[in-house]
Amino acid sequence: MKKILPDPDFIVWTGDDTPHVPNEDLGEEAVLNIIHNLTDIIQEVFPKTKVYSALGNHDYHPKSQLPAAQNYIYDQIAKMWQDWLDPQSQGTFAKGGFYTEKLLNRTGFRMLVLNTNLYYDQNKLTQNMADPAGQFSWADQVLTEAANNKEKVYIIGHVPPGFFEKKRSKPWFTPKFNKQYLDLIDKHHSVIAGQFFGHHHTDSFRMFYNTEGSPISTMFLSPGVTPWETTLPGVVNGANNPGIRVFEYDTQTLLVKDVVTYYLNLTHANAATGRWEKEYRLTESFRVPDASPASMHQVLERMANDRCYLQKYYEFNSVNYDLTECDSDCRIDHVCAAREVDFDRYEDCLAKEGAASIYGGLLPVLSVAVSLILTRQ
């Protein structure tokens, strides 16, 4: 990526840095050493670039059990990232794994880094809490102040709300936390310019709508650098080629103007020499003017109604690893996961799209995530 983009405005690192192995194969110090090594690599390659980093559910030991209070691992990572965090952010991060700062220290722009592992349905420590680490109330205050100060905000995190597009009805958040997150976005969508998450290792997105059905926000799910194959039961072709993406944005409004994804074709790399190359540019592949919520809504509608666009999206979803045809069930899984982050509306979507497929004759075919942000005026 240094050759492709030697001087990015900033880097977004959405977590999951350790091997996805049983807890007994790791430990606190092993987890910290891995994160430390990756931090050193990024600082060596991009020594002058600001990095905004979120914790993944595997960036703790035991995995996914991130606590809602200050602890040894939070403390140590805050120290590791001290070159990227201002003093107030270091304190906030040590207490709960989240923080906020002015984006590139510019007036009018803000980065909100969340620890959504606190809402993960595998986290046994937080399931019975009303607001783990007070993060929801804190984020509400940050976004309220952002509106008062006329700021635009990017939100980054690791575990996303909603459902996994490769396994029907597989959510990530505990239900009450999913609703709280949606309420937060709905309340503050006017200041939120984009959401950037990981966890899936796949290339996807999630739409957020108001009560009138108008698109109000988009969450971009970046593919993983690690070519990991999910171990979730029932998932077929759950692997991915390594992917890294560049977000091009308007420096005056934070509007996401385009998304360019680069990938390493492992089949070619194993046969010869590995080479990172451009996989696709969003505006070119889906024929939209930008990556705004309105444009991403168009992308979703084309996926839902045009078999060519759906197949294209499906292949991009695995970073061009799974090139098989996506049948009608596959279409339902991907469209409903992208369209409905709310649990009840997602189930309604499954029923509605399933009926349309059967009775309407609709037969379409169909980690560590590091995102580099490029200025494009």
UniProtKB/TrEMBL annotation:
Primary localisation category: secreted
SUPFAM superfamilies registered for this protein in UniProt: Metallo-dependent phosphatases
The Calcineurin-like phosphoesterase domain, residue ranges: 6-202
One Gene Ontology term, aspect cellular component: extracellular space
MF terms in GO: metal ion binding; phosphoric diester hydrolase activity
Location in the cell: Secreted
Protein name: Sphingomyelin phosphodiesterase acid like 3B
Species in which this protein is naturally found: Amphiprion percula (Orange clownfish)
